[in-house]
Amino acid sequence: MTNKPKILVMAGSMRRDSFNKKLAKIAAEEARSADAEVTLVDLEDFNLPLYNGDHEENEGLPEGAKKLKQLMIQQDGFLFASPEYNSSISGVFKNAIDWASRPEKDDASYLVAFRGKVAGIMSASPGVLGGLRGLVTLRSILGNIYTLVLPQQVTVSKANEAFDDEGQFHDAKQKEKVTALATELVETLQKLMK
Questions:
Q1: Helical residues (DSSP H) of the chain, grouped into ranges
Q2: Is residue 1 situated within a structural domain?
Q3: In terms of Cα–Cα distance, which of 143, 84, 85, 152 is closest to 115?
Q4: Whole-number mean pLDDT of the chain?
Q5: 32 by DSSP, 3-state: which?
Q6: Which residue range(s) make up the domain with 73?
Q7: What pTM, to 2 d.p., does this model score?
């Protein structure tokens, strides 16, 4: 296929040794292996202030938000690795979504960074549910901003024991689940691009 699907991979965490950053990196590798053009980003690189409507009205989107939004607009789909904070998603992840969803005068359509995109979602958590409750929130948010979320999702429980020193899974079955999600996303996007 000459037109490879473009996929943005991002973890909803800023912690350097985040389990979800490790999960995102593995997912990015698997999406590349499934024949996608992959961009792996770190939220830390965008320097996003807390969303404030007054600041947006007076100054527009900050540079980091513009950069993230433009990257998202250029993609066909997303692989999001979301930590679970208090049975929901992290504040920094919600803040990034909020900034990227903000309209600008040159936008081709409402919610241009999300509308018509397809997302695969996953989570890694030290808890026994593997971040499952946070994925319910993420699925709801993305669906409400016109992103198709694949039914299949990945949760990694006991994440503090799941990764080796190189950030790879100890258990091959965990990697198989991530491979399946990444492959499903790539294949879905390929079908939509025909």
A1: 19-33, 53-59, 63-73, 91-100, 132-144, 159-162, 172-193
A2: no
A3: 143
A4: 96
A5: helix
A6: 6-193
A7: 0.96
